[in-house]
Amino acid sequence: MHETNTFSRILTDMTMIRRRDYHLENEIPQAFRGTRSAFGATFEAADKFGWTLVHPVSANPNPSGIVTSAAFETISGMILTAINAKGPIDGALLHLHGAMVSEGYEDAEGEFLARLRQQLGPEVPVVVTLDLHANVTQRMAENVSALIAYRTYPHIDYYERAWQGAELLDRAMRGEVRPRTVIARRPMIYGLDHGRTQRGPMAELIARGEVLERSGEALVVSICAGFSRANIRDVGPSVTVTADGTAERARTIAEEFMDYAWRTRDFTTVKLVPIDEAVALARGGQSGDKPLVVADYTDNPGGGGYGDATAFLKGLIDGGVEGVAFHAICDAEAVEEGMRAGVGTKTTLTLGGKTDPSMGGGPLSLSGEVVCLTNGRFIAYGPMGGGVERDYGPSMVFRVGGIDIIVITNNGQAVDLGQFTSLGVDPTRYRTVAVKSMQHFRAAFEPIAREVVLVDTGALCSEIYTPELFTKVRRPIWPLDRI
Ligand SMILES: [Zn+2]
To answer: Cα(97) to centroid of ligand 1, in Å?
Structure first.
């Protein structure tokens, strides 16, 4: 699984992939059995249906820049080799993201699925779960039996979608159904409120799709909002409909749904505030209040942001704000310096802003105290992937005035309270909690917040759409062209 932000300067190679959530063969059941993850559901389904599973690799690096050809060939090669070595294979259930771009292939999943189809032959069912931020292509749809996208954002239904996929795959393997998938798209870079499922067009289409699934008119209706930080031809929202055999009705449904997505393309629930406004709100907190949760939307590591932007942190420090828990600055060097200094030591560090100082603020020279050091590992307990081990690498809490800054080695957005509590920071006891995330943080952090605001710090995930940035997209396309 990889969501590729093609604007990031950090290439995704095997070193980065091995750093986090990377498991081979028999490590996979050990990591996921009994969890509410896609793999957790898959192992349960295998038990129920009596499948013998072949599971060569699980790789889920943090969203970042383009995947190297070597990494793409290595991971796809592991899967294709296992099919040769351990086949014949009766069916495939894959958990992919759907917005991966490699050096060789803009549509990396499409390329991989075409190779898989080639190797398995035309009749073996292939069911794929996808992130709802997938940039789904014709090639992906043609080379699978079914695509099943998440229906929640924050994504809290990995487990349910994998079960849905497993049940459909089992029926297909028994020959009860012969699923075929069609896709509809429109000339748009983004839409469907970037996939927000609380209300608006995405919620509307998901609900309509579920009605069609229940009535049996379609086996699966998947709505993907797309991932817009991708300068590729096929960026954008899509609807895929999976039906038993004939595709005509499926095509009509997909086109109708995309008409609606096109008509509502302007709809947005995202409101960003500038840094000074967010700082003023933070300063307004009283002791004893529930925390104000401020999310840096534009440095979201979950969208390929570098996670080291400093502009909002600088705003808080300059504004003299106290009672702040700040997650996070991704800066391996600073953590190493903190480790050399040791817990309880006062020191001066150069923190953050090192990857690209033009994206949300450059390095800050800060004097403070190292108050906690950990290996960055803990078991997540929130609504997103609870039960699974997380690994943010060597981590530190660096206290500067009234601000506890969490510094991590492996980049990742804030989705679980454990990212604070594993470092001895109880976010409920701070007046302000700062995170880096667009939307996923809400599942765990909205329940503890007195208020949530999104701040624009001008970092890598800023919503900027210009022909200069999007040089490879199909044209005409909205919002670059008048259509
Ligand atoms: Zn997503």
So the answer is: 8
Distance 448 CA to ligand 1 centre (A): 23
Distance 136 CA to ligand 1 centre (A): 13
DSSP labels, 390-415: EE--SEEEEEETTEEEEEESS-----
How much distance in Å is there from the Cα of 151 to the middle of ligand 1?
Answer: 10
Coil/strand/helix, residue 350: strand
pLDDT one-digit tens code per residue, 260-278: 999 999 999 999 999 999 9
The Å distance, Cα 49 to ligand 1 centre, comes to: 29
103-158: per-residue pLDDT in tens? Answer: 999 999 999 999 999 999 999 999 999 999 999 999 999 999 999 999 999 999 99
Ligand 1: centre distance to CA 334 (Å): 29
Tell me the C-alpha distance between 342 and 372, whole Å. 9
Q: Which of 147, 133, 165, 156 is nearest to 44 (CA)?
A: 165
Give the distance (Å) from ligand 1 centre to CA of residue 197: 11
Whole-number Å distance, alpha carbon 385 to ligand 1 midpoint, is 13
* Pair 181, 165: CB distance under 8 Å: no
Q: How far is CA 130 from CA 149, 195, 203, 416, in A?
A: 4, 13, 17, 22
Angle at 134 between CA 188 and CA 55, to 5 degrees: 165
CA 85 / ligand 1 centre spacing (Å): 33
State the sign of the Cα–Cα–Cα–Cα dihedral 24, 29, 31, 35.
positive
CA 224 to ligand 1 centroid distance, Å: 9
Residue 130 C-alpha to ligand 1 middle, in angstroms?
9
Does residue 20 have a pLDDT over 90? no
Give the per-residue pLDDT at 335: 98
115 C-alpha to center of ligand 1: Å?
A: 25
* pLDDT digit string, tens, across residues 297-353: 999 999 999 999 999 999 999 999 999 999 999 999 999 999 999 999 999 999 999
For 50-86, write each residue's pLDDT tens digit: 999 999 999 999 999 999 999 999 999 999 999 999 9
- Residue 370 pLDDT exceeds 90: yes
Report phi then psi at 382, rounded to 5.
-85, -175
Burial class (CB in 10 A: 0-12, 13-18, 19+), 175: exposed
Amino acid at 456: D
pLDDT at residue 247, as a whole number: 83
Cis peptide bond upstream of 88, omega within 30: yes
Distance 198 CA to ligand 1 centre (A): 14
> Which has the closest alpha carbon to 170: 24, 299, 280, 50?
50
Query: How many angstroms does the Cα of residue 133 sit away from the middle of ligand 1?
Result: 5
**Could you give the CA distance from residue 81 to residue 73 in angstroms, rounded to a whole number?**
11
Alpha-carbon span 72 to 69, nearest angstrom: 5
